[in-house]
# Entry
Amino acid sequence: MTQNNSRWNQQSSNLYTEQRLLPQHWNPQTKNSFKINIDGSFLEHATEGAVAGILRDAIGTLLDGFTGIVPATSSLHTELQALLQALQAFVAWRNEHIVLETDSLLIVKMLNEQGQVGWEDEAAVHEAQIRLAHYSKITVAHCNRTANQAADWIAKAQRQKSLFSSWLMRLPQPLWELLCFDAPLSGCRSKNS
# Structure
């Protein structure tokens, strides 16, 4: 399994020692590549959490996304569910160059077999490793929370039940503002710019 992990996470050796170099804002990918940002939202003592993921192209244009409510026992479990749902939701893109970013360093470490996996999360980590093997050119990377603001906003709005089911067709203004801030090359203009 280690060989497989190194295939889909080529940047893993730099993820842990160079944390101070992580981008503070969303960074676009190179031409002909895509970025997935995922996040989960969970309140302590809850029995469910909300998950979200978005797919953007090299200049930051929003191409697709998902949200969901999942059974959860912790923030980590919710983040793992976001990862699993992203790998399922975006499977049609599995042959493209993809960077999947999460603000959970622990998940990245667990996927690389460098972090302790509790028994309650072992099955989800194993399932994620299996699903990652179906993607031919994917890197799973850690990003700062500030570089994951759009996915974070979507997950929180879903948890608060304030996100309309048609959010991808008509973006809520706060999400539009975040996407424009992240990707000025996409041509979108926020009300504040």
Observations:
- Residues 75-89 form the longest helix (15 residues).
- The chain is about 35% helix and 20% strand.
- The mean pLDDT is 84.
